[in-house]
Specification:
Helices cover 43% and strands 42% of the residues. It is of the alpha+beta class and 156 residues long.
Length: 156
């Protein structure tokens, strides 16, 4: 019985070694692809801020999925429609921003990114500037990544 189990184990391990890609090739390709995806996701975060400062509704419309929703700093639920309307009307004006380090976790066609940002912002005529922590959930739809959910909190 022991000999049978040893033989079966040897066959399973041997088959796995033959059919598996060489680890060094797999690691290099995966690391390169993963790094490229992480860079693209970080770039989307930067482009979002740039679009908000410029009042570029068309660019923001591309970044946010049609079903995007967020929990705003106020605790209210925000939709893509209301976000774009606030930008168009000038109710929400991002004057400047500086994004801190970001951490990205990619899981297939879904990614989570979180980081910090210092903003100078005017909302509804009042200074809403500050430092914030944020998290976005992105999904790859077709050939591009879009933000599907967001949340943020003011740093006290």
């Amino acid at each position: 019985m022991k000999e049978f189990l040893a033989a079966a184990l040897f066959v399973c391990v041997g088959t796995g070694m033959v059919s598996a890609e060489p680890p060094e090739t797999y690691s290099r390709e995966t690391a390169s692809k993963r790094s490229s995806v992480i860079d693209a996701i970080k770039q989307i975060s930067q482009e979002w801020g740039d679009a908000a400062v410029a009042g570029d509704v068309d660019k923001l419309n591309q970044i946010l999925a049609d079903d995007w929703k967020a929990i705003a700093m106020s605790g209210n639920l925000v939709t893509k429609e209301s976000e774009l309307a606030n930008l168009k009307s000038g109710k929400d004006k991002l004057v400047s921003f500086e994004v801190g380090p970001m951490d990205v976790q990619v899981m297939g066609n879904v990614a989570v990114v979180h980081g910090s940002v210092v903003e100078k912002r005017i909302y509804d005529g009042k200074d809403a500037s500050g430092q914030f922590l944020w998290m976005d959930l992105l999904e790859k739809r077709g050939n591009r990544w879009v933000v599907v959910r967001s949340a943020g909190a003011r740093v006290k």
